[in-house]
Design brief:
By secondary structure, the protein is mainly beta. The model has no long low-confidence stretch (mean pLDDT 97). Strand 2 and strand 3 form a beta hairpin. The chain is globular. The structure holds dTDP-4-keto-6-deoxyglucose (T46). DTDP-4-keto-6-deoxyglucose binds next to strand 4, strand 5 and strand 10.
Length: 138
Amino acid sequence: SYINLKNIELRDIPKIIAQDGRGNLSVIEKDLIPYDIKRVYYLYDVPSDSIRGGHAHKELQQFLIALSGSFDVVLDNGKERKTFTLNRPNKGLLIPCGIWRELENFSAGAVCLSLVSEVYDEEDYIRDYDDFKLYCKD
Ligand code: T46
């Protein structure tokens, strides 16, 4: 069955603005993310013409944040696509399992932080789009 992309939205990450002008602090506590974080990785020094992702996950969920700079995340449920621009460190995108994702249009200096529900396991990846389409139909 197809995951409804309408239910996927950018989420606010609480921001604490120092009243004395020392800058901002954002904090992610356990209630913001519906799983225990088992892994953290980050993408950086990504050329602007690169496309990252290009796969789906069977079980893995993740929360993406543009810690610096900006990039686009294209989500695909096997039937339709929706693009999110991540360009603020206090916004995050929760990607459920069973969604194809592509990350593109990285700005200079962009850093994509990923908070992940699973340890790395290549078996969890669907890297072929036709396989993904079949997987969605099941
Ligand atoms: C995702 C997007 C946003 C590891 O050894 N450990 C890891 O934790 C990860 C994430 C990757 N790798 C290896 C596997 C590949 O040989 O690093 C190489 C690059 O990985 P990949 O081509 O999957 O990178 P991206 O940026 O296309 O995808 C990654 C994540 O794999 C994926 O889950 O959603 O970032």
